[in-house]
Amino acid sequence: MPLNQLISRGTNALLHELLDANLQLPPEYQAHLTNHLSMALHSLHCLGASAPRLREFYAVYARRFQGQSQPDVARESFLPVSDWRRLRGQPGAYPSLLAYFNELVARSGLENTLYAVLPDLMPGVAAAAFHGLIRTAHAVQAAHAGELAAALAYWAWRWQPLAAPPIAEPLIQFDDWAKRLIEQAPEWHSEGQLISIRMNEASQSDIYLALAGALMPSATIETRIADLAALAVDRYVLKPNFTVLHMITGLRALRTLLPWLQDSETLQAIVVHCFVAAYLAARATPSAPAIIPKTKSWSE
Question: Which pTM does this prediction carry?
Answer without folding.
Answer: 0.90
